[in-house]
Amino acid sequence: MRDQSVWQSPVGKLINEMTLDEKIGQLMLINSPGGHSINSIKDDLRAGRIGAILNEVDPETVRELQRICIEESRLRIPLLIGRDVIHGFRTVFPIPLGQAASWDPELIEQCARVSAIEAKSRGVNWTYAPMLDICRDPRWGRIAETLGEDPYLTSVLGSAMVKGFQGDNLSGADSIAACVKHFAGYGASESGKDYNITNIPENELRNVHLPPFKAAIEAGAATVMTSFSDLNGIPASANEFLLKQVLRNEWNFNGFVVSDWESVRILQTAGLTEGDKESAEAAINAGMDMEMASRTFADHIKTLLDENKISMAAIDKMVENILRVKERMGLLNFNAERLGYFREYDLNGHLEIAKEAARKSLVLLKNNNYLLPLKKTNLTNVAVIGPLADDKYEQLGTWIFDGDENISETALHAITEEGKENFSVKYVRGMHTTRSRSYDFFEEAKAAAYDSDVVLLFLGEESILSGEAHCRSDISLPGNQAELINALKETGKPIVLVLMAGRPLALEYIIDKVDALVYAWHPGTMSGTAIADILFGKYSPSGKLPVTFPRVTGQIPVYYSQKNTGRPATPESFNHIDNLPIRAHQVSVGNTSFHLDTHYTPLFPFGFGLSYTEFHYSDIRLSSDKLTPQGKILASATVTNTGNREAEETVQLYIRDLAGSITRPVKELKGFKKIRLEAGKSSVVEFEITVNDLKFWNKYMKYTYEPGKFHLWIGGDSDANLRAEFELIQI
Ligand code: BGC
Questions:
Q1: What's the 53 CA to ligand 1 centre distance in angstroms?
Q2: Backbone φ and ψ of 311, nearest 5°
Q3: Whose CA is nearest to atom 12 of ligand 1?
Q4: Tens digits of per-residue pLDDT, 78-113?
Q5: Which of 535, 557, 580 corresponds to the end of one domain?
Q6: Distance (Å, rounded) from C-alpha 359 to C-alpha 373?
Q7: Which of 85, 86, 128, 180 to mutate to test the pocket of ligand 1 (most atoms within 8 A of CB)?
Q8: Residue nearest to atom 6 of ligand 1 (CA)
Q9: DSSP-derived 3-state class of residue 77
Q10: Cis amide leading into 373 (omega within 30)
Q11: Which atom of ligand 1 is the closest one to the Cα of 228?
């Protein structure tokens, strides 16, 4: 039964007044035709036939469209103006995966806040972010847009983004509505290929893929976008289990659900329906509220109502969900202040935040003999080599529709500035692009290296190699990059490799050829200073990997919270193809879980990242080794900065449930804290644990804890070995 009080609310009263055409209008999200063609939609706006537009960012045009809605349409309902504000607007922050490497929710919230301010100044009031898909397959190009492989980290950081976009109050002048996407399971696309199907058992879905969405909705996310993908045979855009059972019944979500781009129309292509009319019916009956880009709702709702295939109550509910969000945004009692056009903002302040975000996103993965930080006074000639050293556009990464490359600062520029008093810089591009296969600049690059004290090499992936529909079957360095590294290695000069990329790359075959490796993702507008600050030691690297780095592509999926299997690999049982005895007996070489042609561990584990100092973990303690369902225990460890400079560390807490009604992961991240420690100082870092940290969806599809033994680690990455044990007892 419908709650009658709805009709007394402003939204309800509005719905009562609406014609069917006006209702259908609110369900339509159309792509802006842009430029002069925009005139074609003005009559539709006057007639209330469009409720939302995406991709119109010309502030004059937006203002005019909103004016028509408010002054010339019968019901005076303003538009939602949607845009993919994914990691910045004019100022571009690191790609989301890079931001996640900061493990810094406050910083991530600030980046989203700035993005909202800049977007709102152009009239945008709705962003299609954050993306909360859990991805454990870096072949998938959209891993760049994710916050990594872990449900807990993604939940914390994704919620921070929601708060940043929406501000304290969704109707604030600088707030824009968030849209969490892609609901759900998209990150598990088969073979890491975009738009592919997913098959995810329900408890895996609930334990791994859904928690970030739940957390973000609890943080107030106003809207949800469905995924393109097919979940266990039912495309997400027509998936009643996801949209009704989980989202509405279990989570009480009261915002609205929008499809992805034409994801309703392509239900037919996917093989679920025989045509647009049936697609509209399937999506509406599953719980979709708004259709993006395609027009199956507009074209077929009337017939579907006549044929009793959908109900008027369903249409009213869809409209109500959408208008409720517009109401929360303050749009129903429109005033110009709320739309925030043309508000000035402090670009320099925004660039400072972008610099901080870029610095904190960089992860130091290797630093032989403390080559880094470089001492300026020891340098005379520096060779800067590589196609990504001086490219204002490529450093920005995927999804930067509104990014301004003119304000980008490149690494070459910042390094040259840095060297002014001390060293000279010789720049050689080395390769035409990151994927080129020519050797044209190799000799020049080698000559520059021979003449230098150190080689700063900027390689990786240009922007277009990651992001939507840009997946790779082989995630090693593209083009002739490995050959370039080999050529430079021959010079005998120390090599610092800075990799910019939209995904973890498989680097086993080059890692020994370089002396230091800084993983920079695509760091955004302020890449240059951020990288120079790290290379020359103004800032000690603090980034930690939000995703596991495989050694080779064939290891995928490899992630830290894997299941143990009944036969886990061990150092003793592991065997490499090169060491197999000839005609060895089948069972003599270790029947455990590994690939013969690579090691069973990843190249770099989740949570890993070096610093210019060292942190030592000791003295793990539990306040009790027994936990009751009503109680709590405190777990602590002492962290000591044993190096010689002050730096930041991310202290991580992992837990393993040793036995469950379904098998449990070997480790799960359950908490993290950032600390700053002076050289020589120690700090006791404490975490509180209750049964809430131990709950999971079990064999009986119940979200609960199960008594038994647990292991707990506190450390600087997911390989942490400082362990304590406790038991959860039922009393
Ligand atoms: C993407 C979404 C995006 C939408 C609108 C789709 O192709 O999958 O993530 O928000 O386009 O641009």
A1: 13
A2: -110, 155
A3: 84
A4: 999 999 999 999 999 999 999 999 999 999 999 999
A5: 535
A6: 14
A7: 128
A8: 261
A9: coil
A10: yes
A11: 8
Which residue matches tokens 């800084």?
518
Which tens digit of pLDDT belongs to each residue from 171-221?
Answer: 998 999 999 999 999 999 999 999 999 999 999 999 999 999 999 999 999
pLDDT tops 50 at residue 300: yes
| 444-487 pLDDT, tens digit each | 999 999 999 999 999 999 999 999 999 999 999 999 999 999 99
Q: Is the pLDDT of residue 340 over 80?
A: no
Preceding amide of 501 cis, omega within 30: no
Distance CA 456, CA 410 (A): 13
Unique residue bearing structure tokens 């960089």: 362
- E-strand stretches of 210-369: 223-226, 230-231, 234-235, 256-258, 291-292, 363-367
CA atoms within 13 A on the CB side of 295: 7
Compute how many other C-beta atoms are within 10 angstroms of the C-beta atom of residue 453. 14
590 φ/ψ angles, rounded to the nearest 5 degrees: 90, 95
Integer Cα distance of 728 and 468 in angstroms: 44
Question: Residue 694 maps to which CATH number?
Answer: 2.60.40.10
**Structural domain contains residue 71:** no
| HSE, side-chain direction, 13 A CA sphere, residue 346 | 7
Closest CA to 523 of 180, 200, 88: 88
- What domain range includes position 398? 353-535
Query: 527 lies in a domain?
Result: yes
Residue 260 annotated in active site: yes
Question: Active-site residue among 84, 133, 260, 276?
Answer: 260
Contacts of 111 (CB under 8 A, 6+ apart): 87, 88, 93, 99, 161, 164, 353, 354, 357
- Residue owning tokens 């152009």: 122
Average pLDDT of the chain?
A: 96
Query: Which ligand 1 atom is at minimum distance from the Cα of 293?
Result: 5
Residue tagged 């975009």 (tokens): 194
Q: For the residues 320-327, what does the mean pLDDT come to?
A: 97
Q: Which atom of ligand 1 is closest in space to residue 55's alpha carbon?
A: 12
Residue 478: inside a domain: yes
Distance in angstroms (rounded) separating the CA atoms of residues 164 and 82: 17
Atom of ligand 1 nearest to the CA of 145: 9
Q: Which of 56, 57, 466, 468 to mutate to test the pocket of ligand 1 (most atoms within 8 A of CB)?
A: 468
CA angle 514, 460, 180 (to 5 degrees): 130
Using left for φ > 0, alpha for ψ between -120 and 50, and beta otherwise, residue 157 falls in alpha
Pocket of ligand 1 (CB under 6 A): 84, 128, 181, 260-261, 468
Distance 588 CA to ligand 1 centre (A): 52
Q: Closest Cα to atom 2, ligand 1: which residue? A: 260
Give the CATH number, domain containing residue 514: 3.40.50.1700
Choose among 656, 400, 650, 662: nearest CA to 527. Answer: 400
- 623, 515: one domain: no
The pTM assigned to this predicted structure is 0.97
**What is the average pLDDT across 665-670?**
98
* 497 neighbors 485 (Cβ within 8 angstroms): yes
